């Protein structure tokens, strides 16, 4: 009987032209820089030589033993790395959240180093320590024929690179688990070991699966480590690159990109949509009441030993590169020299400048876009809201190699002739690094009473004014942490941009890669050290900015 | 004071057959939050929506504000349909339950915000903000941030921020529910005085019936998305049209009775064998057949068990002394009758276990079908 009138979200948004503009702008950006390139890969792989529809390439790829072996290699590597990294991550997270471990600050710092580090460091150390002139294999053990290149090295390097992802995911979960639940079990007379087995572990299971999937994605899409240390063990991300640049086989590359995309996408969807409904984290379970930390020496000291061992490995690996940058010829002549730095400063100055410039352009863009999308998705109603959320988070699951290939397919011809331009590289940075900003913004917004923005609106402010003067200031913290992250990620990106650089716009990470290709390992080490210094300085500056601008206590009144 | 006179233009608010259907939270079905309600609020009037939790009060208010879009029906302000008008252009202000003060702006800037977004001249912004700060006695704390003032002060800031823009309509969503009882009583009187003085058309939502009585020109009783009754506080209390309204607004004894017929205005009823004449049964009273007597506890008198006035007899099960009243609970006819004796100081009170007669002040008795 009720006459259904204008009550659609569509009318809502049509009343607000500014909102409409931003929604359309974001959708245009997402379509052009995320969906369109993916579509191009898909379309390209089912197009025959003559331009018509053909499944030939696809069928050939799926039945080709080389492709299948590469596919299997990547999967196996991803699974093994995920298991090892998650185990290390869980032990770290448990030791840091549940026990009275000494030197917690130090271990936390150790777990962040691989996240903000430039690429290639660990692989380079691997070569320095275990390679033909390896310090450990040759000097210490006198082994001549140890082959450092292959899956075994990759597993080591990736496990160290990615355990922090598992650690961060699991710390979040373990901290939020209501301590009362574990205390209740303790009250019921259960031993600590029993509580762990029957309460803590099962409750953190969704977190564990989540960590496994996230590490799996990272391992699958890793380009820099397999590119320099995998030897004959081919992986999809690298093979796709070599197929295109070495054999000029665009179609083969596109097929590999699809093979790479399928499992990462599946893992992403599992992680995001299937697991999100299974979380046992109690919403009110903020770490309010103090948690009883386990002080039993029989528990603390073994955990301490484990964490110390991991810390030792991390320090050893980074230290090796640092030393390697200052010695004449690694493994042969260990005398001090600054020659590599001189070499790097002449050869690497331009790429370094480019990397920093483009990262600086992309950073605020990424931050703003992240906050705008978080705001639209959490606070506004419009048709396609869910789609916007999905697509903008999607980039997290799309391997850089796939993005790179998609971009050259999509932007190599009119109307979007953009290859080789700085603009395209900035867009690649922006859209690839957006998800972290969106997540930070979303979780902050969900904690801020919606009526604060409604108050602004009813007092006469338009959507954009409300966003600028009310929402954004409240999101300051999330905004700046997004900035730090996206700057570091842009500086250290390899896989997507390796397809996008041009003689005019070469980047520092790609220069390091070239040094590897010509076996100039000491120069690579010096380059990496310079990058680490730049990143540390940049984080320092951004951190100061956060403290400066985020000064007035932004608290919510009860 | 620099505050405009609101009463000269029409700011009538009219809700016409308004319906709001939500998709239920789990996504499976639908929730009819507001079901075909119509209501007219005259310029300068304060109308309160009162009802139990989940009855659709907030949803109604949010549709007027423009935050929710009606599924059906329309909203007119000053005679104009506001469907195409976004919240920031409706000329409405709202005081939120959580106050929703801007945490990163100080008190002065919170209040000046609405004037600033209108891009008024700086001198006018300063003048009007200062006037309101003065009026609400907030001048001394204007440089502080919301987290640095008390709950009552936050409430006043929220009110100041809402009225400084001289809205044509003011909306309140349980604005006092976060205050303690004393402050709540004080603030509701202040609020009503201010509203009357400025003559702002107001729609007020609460689930506190005493608050509704104290501040409203008219009260709207809502239940499950529909309006059950509209009227002045007195009309609602004295002439409830349904048992829901009678029991929701204050306490009421509901006694099943047989209506025998009419004697002019008066109704003749049979209550468990006693014949009673109810002079003023109310227009909702059925003409004949089964009905319910509605008697407020203060209209129930306890008399001697042998008294000719005693309509019913029973044994006092419980007596509670509140200071201003003494309340008796007497089980009869399968229910428990409440009787209240005002000003019990020094009076002789009946004992628990005593058998007494119960009589009614017949003028105050109403009859309802259900
Ligand atoms: N966004 C929404 N989606 C789905 N259902 C909703 C939504 N908002 C409100 N409802 C439902 O509509 C009904 C009316 O809600 P409303 O908030 O208007 O109640 P209320 O009278 O203000 O209650 P309270 O006194 O608890 O504030 C409730 O059943 C509520 O669960
Ligand atoms: Mg409500």
Q: What overall geometry of chain B do the principal axes of the alpha carbons give?
A: elongated
* Biggest beta-sheet profile of chain A: 2 strands, antiparallel
Shape of chain A: globular
Are there runs of chain A of 5+ residues with pLDDT below 50, and where?
Answer: 1-7, 281-288, 551-558
Give helix and strand order of chain B, one letter per element, not per position: EEEHEEEHHHEHEHEEHHEEEEEEEEEEE
Write the H/E string of chain A, N to C: HHHHHHHHHHHHHHHEEHHHHHHHHH
Share of helical residues of chain A: over 70%
**Hetero groups:** adenosine-5'-triphosphate, magnesium ion
Give descriptors for this structure.
heterodimer; A: mainly alpha; B: 370 residues; alpha+beta; Rossmann fold; OB fold (Dihydrolipoamide Acetyltransferase, E2P); 6-stranded mixed sheet; 5-stranded antiparallel sheet; 8 helices; 23% helix; elongated; disordered N terminus; binds adenosine-5'-triphosphate; binds magnesium ion
Can you describe what's shown?
- The complex is a heterodimer of chains A (558) and B (370).
- Chain A is built from 24 helices and two strands.
- Chain A has 558 residues and is mainly α.
- In chain A, strands 1-2 form a two-stranded antiparallel ribbon.
- In chain A, a hairpin with a 3-residue loop joins strand 1 and strand 2 (333-336).
- Mean pLDDT of chain A is 85; it is low at 1-7, 281-288 and 551-558.
- Chain B contains eight helices and 21 strands.
- In chain B, the strands form five sheets. Chain B has a six-stranded mixed sheet, sandwiched between helices. In chain B, strands 13-12-11-14-21 form a five-stranded antiparallel sheet.
- Mean pLDDT of chain B is 90; it is low at 1-7.
- The longest helix of chain B is centred in the middle third of the chain and has 18 residues, at 181-198.
- Chain A binds chain B through residues 2-8, 11-12, 15-16, 449, 451-452, 454-462, 465, 469-470, 473-474, 552-558, and chain B through 19, 21, 36, 65-67, 69-74, 83-90, 92-94, 96-104, 113-114, 117-118, 145-147, 151, 154, 161-162, 165, 178.
- The complex binds adenosine-5'-triphosphate and magnesium ion.
- The site of adenosine-5'-triphosphate (ATP) has 14 residues of chain B, from strand 2 and helix 1.
